[in-house]
Design a protein that fits this description.
The longest helix is centred in the C-terminal third of the chain and has 41 residues. The protein folds into 4 domains: 221 residues, Calcium-transporting ATPase, cytoplasmic transduction domain A; 286 residues, Calcium-transporting ATPase, transmembrane domain (Up-down Bundle), CATH 1.20.1110; 155 residues, HAD superfamily/HAD-like (Rossmann fold, 3-Layer(aba) Sandwich); 201 residues, Calcium-transporting ATPase, cytoplasmic domain N (3-Layer(aba) Sandwich), CATH 3.40.1110.10. The protein starts with 7 loop residues before the first helix and ends in an 11-residue tail after the last helix. The chain is an alpha+beta fold. Strand 26, helix 24 and strand 27 form a beta-alpha-beta unit. It is elongated, with a radius of gyration of 35 Å. It has 33 helices and 28 strands. It binds adenosine-5'-triphosphate. The site of adenosine-5'-triphosphate (ATP) has 18 residues, from helix 14, strand 17 and strand 18. Keywords: ATP-binding, Cell membrane, Ion transport, Magnesium, Membrane, Nucleotide-binding, Phosphoprotein, Translocase, Transmembrane, Transmembrane helix, Transport.
Length: 905
């Protein structure tokens, strides 16, 4: 059966549905049970047990296991068992980390899942696309990604881009009538829409004919399934770094083993020590911890209403130098109220606020009834006719709820204040055609037919644009040819309203003669008669001003990009502190004339782009990027997608954004609010800093471990650490404390630093030096403590080894607090990060356990330490952190207060 050949009735019959009511709840549930969710089957997942075993496939771990088995064969059972247990625990930890990372990523994917507008049980609702079943009535409109296969029952100027299926990138016009033909290719099935394709224009309603694997997309799903896991630039760099670190660790290990054997140590013992050292020194946990830090940070962002769609953008966020933000709804509240009306030189003030019907029209300090003023009535009622919003009277609420665009909502409310509703108007006239609003034309029109058969066009839109389409104007209640003096007056009114930060909407009309056909918007929107203006306030979001100031402090410039009038935009930009005194405002028309190079040279001083079309946004992004900026760009419509895609951080609106914009974006604001961008940038900076913190911690610790052994060989000392101790240190200190650093709180200066350079290396800003210096000192104090202990009791090697072991652990656990700050350990309250405190306490507890529980002493080759020993351990282990921190504080004091927080030490 071909769905495209069937009549509408036949489609309803086959799917057991009804185009006017949709499925009933019961029918839906039955279908869902039968067909399952509307999802493409995912590619094969790695089973958990394979993930577990993959923890042990690391070359060095295998070598360690082999060496351990060998030692068991040579009779060292206890050592061998302990080592194997530690390796297994390590593997389990790695496995848990990996599962957690995977789960967090899956949760993120779920969050950005698309929704669909469907009719069920007679009411329209928005549901998750996976809940759609065959028979559901679904509405698609411009910007939607089609969520299932469907057959149209009605379409309005509908175009769908089907390149995902057909390879044809030109959108196809859709219709609803049945088509005859055998085995038509998908591209010719013009009354069907297919899962995964994109609606570029218009809207349509249809019945779902296939879901999940039963869609056309499902048939080719295996071709497009690619397990795409994007690695962030830092992850890629760390991957390369990991390889280098393996080589360095192996080289040093070979050196240690070589030196040990040369010094006369037992070669077999040296090899086991060497292999343990290599296992400990290679930071195999790093990638998992990075993923966890990213994923946890991303979840924190979600709590602050920013949904990250592409993980790499978390890093880029911290590098952002410019935010290009839409005005309406992002910087402002998008809660519009008409406060002024203007027509033919007359101004009315409108009282009342919000979506309440109460309000009066005041002219020259006197109340005016709209029904007594023909022009006023026409201005109000035409704005209601040319309008797709709906005011819903919800029980228990003292004001209406708006369904639709707030600009249109404001016009409905101003009409309502004069008792005008769309229902009452539709008793007199019918709307027979519509040319929907688009932000390039900046207007919308309807064609209206009166009961007596007269037809006329009603247009509303951006006043300056609409004025150019008008040949006539209503002046002194007369329709007159528009003259310069009229145009001047209208422009004056637009400026006056704009200066008060009001968004203005113009209303115009055109009578249609006889059978004149209007086949496109261009024909309808010409030779119009200008009626007047409605000016509405759209207050700035209260929190935005502060967010903009925070961004300025953080070295990030905010640019307003809006379709609104330059004067209105500038007034709001001034209120929000976006536009400085000498800052420039550029209009879309001027922007079109500028060459790219001109824009590049001017861009630095432009703060507001007004009356722009979505296409301009791309030009702006390119110019800013050419100037070396890392650009965040917001958008919501289909046409915004190219700019969102090319920006370093593409940001889509969660509420008002289309699927197309969301899919092109790397960040979605679930509340459409500018302040959320600021919060996301702060989190982005913090996540990166946290990753730096544990890289610093892990690598300094590992450096310390290797150097202890190397120093011992160089000084012809006995082995300061035994293999099992090295592995224990690796397990305990690399695990929990490192993870706790990954969720550390931001430093207080995180939003007063300049943005990070996007090409910055892992070890920049002094990190490499910090790792080497701290690592060196950790190694030095450990060998120092060992040496002192041996000096005092030359025949107590086990005691000296226990002291070395404890000093190494304690030095690392103190150093972990130092890693929390780019400046010094003294700059932060150590109890702020409770996870870290708990992680450190549990590590200390584990140290005491292996030292004081008698059965574990022979396993870990430890003896209980005395108070004197402990004083030595603690005194020595505090040195690496506090000596350098003290030095840093001394240096800071000497410098003026504006000193860079990134000074090297
Ligand atoms: P932003 O500041 O986010 O760019 P905007 O609403 O000003 O938002 P657009 O949506 O592109 O930008 O609108 C451009 C202009 O078109 C508006 O300034 C307004 O004059 C006009 N306009 C907006 N909505 C409608 C509508 N529903 N019908 C007619 N004209 C509209």
């Amino acid at each position: 059966m071909n769905w495209y050949e069937l009549s509408h009735e036949e489609v309803e019959k086959q799917t057991n549905s009804n185009i006017n009511r949709g499925l009933t709840k019961e029918a839906y549930e039955k279908r869902l049970q039968q067909d399952g969710y509307n999802q493409l089957r995912e590619g094969k997942k790695t089973p958990a047990f394979l993930m577990f075993f993959s923890q042990f496939k690391d070359f060095m771990v295998l070598v360690l296991l082999a060496a351990t088995v060998l030692s068991a064969m040579l009779g060292e059972f206890l050592d061998a068992t302990a080592i194997i247990i530690i390796v297994i625990i390590n593997g389990v930890l790695g496995f848990i980390q990996e599962i957690k990372a995977e789960k967090s990523l899956a949760a993120l994917r779920e969050l950005s899942a698309p929704t669909a507008n469907i009719l069920r049980d007679g009411s329209w609702q928005s549901v998750s696309a996976k809940d759609i079943v065959v028979g559901d009535v679904i509405k698609v409109s411009s910007g939607d990604r089609v969520s299932a296969d469907l057959r149209f029952f009605s379409t309005k100027g509908l175009y769908i881009e089907e390149s995902a299926l057909t390879g044809e990138s030109v959108p196809v016009q859709k219709m609803s009538a049945a088509i005859n033909g055998k085995d038509l290719p998908l591209g010719d099935q013009e009354n069907m829409a297919f899962m995964g394709t994109m609606v570029t224009q218009g809207s349509g309603i249809g019945i779902v004919t296939g879901t999940g694997m039963n869609t056309e997309m499902g048939k080719i799903a295996h071709l497009i399934q690619s397990a795409e896991t994007l690695l962030t630039p830092l992850q890629l760099r760390l991957e390369q770094l990991g390889k280098i670190l393996i080589i360095i660790s192996l080289a040093l290990t070979v050196l240690v083993v070589g030196a040990g054997v040369y010094e006369g140590h037992d070669p077999y013992k040296m090899i086991l020590s060497g292999v343990s050292l290599a296992v400990a020194a290679i930071p195999e946990g790093l990638p998992a911890i990075v993923t966890i830090a990213l994923a946890l940070g991303v979840q924190k962002m979600i709590r602050r209403r920013a949904i990250v769609r592409k993980l790499p953008s978390v890093e880029t966020l911290g590098c952002t130098t410019v935010i290009c933000s839409d005005k309406t709804g992002t910087l402002t509240q998008n809660k519009m109220t008409v406060t002024h009306l203007w027509s033919g030189g007359n101004t009315w003030h409108v009282t009342g606020s919000g979506y309440k019907a109460e309000g009066e029209f005041i002219k020259d300090n006197k109340e005016v009834k709209a029904e007594n003023d023909q022009t006023l009535y026409q201005l109000l009622s035409y704005a209601v006719l040319c309008n797709n919003a709906e005011l819903i009277d919800e029980k228990g609420k003292d004001e209406y709820t708006l369904n639709g665009d707030p600009t249109e909502g404001a016009l409905l409310v101003s009409g309502l204040k004069a008792g005008i509703t769309k229902e009452s108007l539709l008793k007199e006239v019918d709307i027979i055609d519509e040319f929907p609003f688009d932000s390039t034309r900046k207007m919308m029109s309807v064609v209206v037919k009166t009961k007596t058969g007269e037809k006329f066009v009603v247009t509303k839109g951006a006043p300056d644009v609409l004025l150019n389409k008008c040949d006539f104007i209503l002046w002194d209640k007369q329709r007159q040819l528009i003259k310069n003096k009229h145009t001047e007056k209208v422009k004056e009114a637009i400026t006056t309203l704009g200066n008060q930060a009001l968004r203005t909407m113009a209303i115009a009309y055109k009578p249609i003669k006889g059978t004149q056909e209007l086949s496109n918007a261009g024909q309808a929107e010409s030779r119009l008669t200008f009626i007047g203006l409605q000016g509405m306030i759209d207050p700035p979001r209260p929190e935005v001003r502060e967010s903009i100031r925070d961004c300025q402090k953080a070295g990030i410039k905010t640019i307003m990009i809006t379709g609104d009038h330059a004067i209105t935009a500038s007034a709001i930009a001034r209120q929000l502190n976006i536009l400085p005194h000498n800052g420039e405002v550029v209009e879309g028309s001027a922007l079109s004339k500028m060459t790219e190079d001109e824009l590049v040279s001017k861009a630095e001083n432009i703060y507001v782009y007004a009356r722009v079309s979505p296409e301009h946004k791309l030009k702006i992004v390119k110019a800013l990027q050419k100037r070396g900026h890392v650009v965040a760009m917001t958008g919501d419509g289909v046409n915004d997608a190219p700019a969102i895609k090319s920006a370093n951080i593409g940001i889509a609106m969660g509420n008002t954004g289309t699927d197309v914009a969301k899919e092109a974006s790397s960040l979605v604001l679930s509340d459409d609010n500018f302040s959320t961008i600021r919060a996301a940038i702060e989190e982005g900076r913090n996540i990166y800093e946290n990753i730096r913190k544990f890289i610093r911690y892990l690598l300094a610790s590992n450096t310390g471990e290797i150097l202890v052994m190397l120093f011992a060989m160089m000084l012809s000392l006995p082995l300061p650490l035994l293999p099992i101790q090295i592995l224990w240190v690796n397990l305990v200190t690399d695990g929990l404390p490192a993870m706790a650093l990954g969720v550390d709180q931001a430093e207080d200066d995180v939003m007063t630093r300049k943005p990070r350079k996007s090409d910055e290396g892992v070890f920049s800003r002094g990190l490499g030096w910090k790792i080497i210096s701290r690592g060196f000192l950790i190694g030095l104090v450990t060998i120092g403590a060992f040496w002192i202990a041996l000096k005092q009791n030359p025949d107590q090697l086990v005691q000296a080894q226990t002291i070395a072991f404890s000093t190494l652990v304690m030095a690392q656990l103190i150093h972990v607090f130092d890693c929390r700050s780019e400046r010094s350990v003294l700059h932060r309250n150590p109890f702020e990060n409770i996870y870290l405190v708990l992680a450190v306490l549990s590590s200390i507890l584990l140290l005491l356990v292996v030292m004081y529980i008698p059965v574990l002493q022979p396993v870990f080759h430890t003896v209980p330490l005395t108070l004197r020993d402990w004083l030595l351990v603690i005194g020595m282990s505090a040195i690496p952190t506090f000596s350098l921190s003290g030095f840093q504080v001394f240096k800071d004091k000497k410098k003026s207060w504006g000193a860079s927080p990134y000074s090297k030490i």
